[in-house]
Amino acid sequence: MKGIRHGFFGRQGGTSEGIYESLNLGIGSDDKPKAVMRNRRRVADTIGVKEVDLLLSCHQIHSDRAILATMPWGKDRPQADGMVTDLPGIALCILTADCVPVLFADRKAGVIGACHAGWKGALGGICEATIAKMEEIGAHRKDIHAAIGPCIGQESYEVGPEFRDEFLKQAPWSGNLFHAGQGDRFHFNIETFVKNRLLQTKIAWVDVIGHDTCAMDEMYFSNRRRNHLGEPDYGRQGSVIMLEG
């Protein structure tokens, strides 16, 4: 194995127009399908994927389901929020627009993974499920490194008391990740929540980019921002990892 290639892509450098400007990789968005495929081809070329069909994205459902990726699945995308592989040349592509993308690598074992951690998935254990799936094919958590990509920042992530109550019920230690806002609102630090969950698994290392997708409008797509603006849809950026052959 030569090594591992990965990248956290933003919204710049693509061919989409309007609210999807410009590197929208969202297959499930209402963007023009040809524009999305051209954008995915650009990302595939950048990472070094030979065929765009080998740039794999799941139908993400905010679950704790992680799957093994061994071949292209075309338009019939499996419903899952985590992917792992030990095969060179397959690129795992997580799509986000505020949720937390996490990329994993065990260089010694030659196993990689990627997951989409929205609040439901993060609370439900998608990071842990992805690590467990990596271990099934030979990874060792003491050798796994993880990188948390761009996601919504605490100042941008306003939630209600019922949201906070759910987290305190299932993860009592997360109380200090909620800062009081106006009225009964709170601002939640989902980035640190995911980081802490990863640290609890005893993997080797966790890195954090620290970019707020909602606040950095020229760099990233954001579902929360589009809600504030009243836009009908939003683009998705990709977080990609691949084993080199």
UniProtKB/TrEMBL annotation:
Question: Gene3D superfamilies, from UniProt?
Answer: CNF1/YfiH-like putative cysteine hydrolases (3.60.140.10)
The membrane-spanning stretches of this chain are: none
Please provide the record's keywords in A-Z order: Hydrolase, Metal-binding, Transferase, Zinc
InterPro entries recorded: Cu_polyphenol_OxRdtase, Cu_polyphenol_OxRdtase_sf, Cytotoxic_necrot_fac-like_cat
The molecular function terms in GO held by this entry are: copper ion binding; hydrolase activity; S-methyl-5-thioadenosine phosphorylase activity
From the UniProt record, list the reaction(s) this protein catalyses. Answer: adenosine + H2O + H(+) = inosine + NH4(+); inosine + phosphate = alpha-D-ribose 1-phosphate + hypoxanthine; S-methyl-5'-thioadenosine + phosphate = 5-(methylsulfanyl)-alpha-D-ribose 1-phosphate + adenine; adenosine + phosphate = alpha-D-ribose 1-phosphate + adenine
| Database matches in Pfam families | Cu-oxidase_4
PANTHER family, per this entry?
Answer: PURINE NUCLEOSIDE PHOSPHORYLASE LACC1, UNCHARACTERIZED PROTEIN YFIH
Q: Which family does it belong to?
A: Belongs to the purine nucleoside phosphorylase YfiH/LACC1 family.
- The protein's name is Purine nucleoside phosphorylase
Q: Which organism is it from?
A: Henriciella mobilis
The taxonomic lineage of its organism, from the top, reads: Bacteria, Pseudomonadati, Pseudomonadota, Alphaproteobacteria, Hyphomonadales
**Gene behind this protein:** pgeF
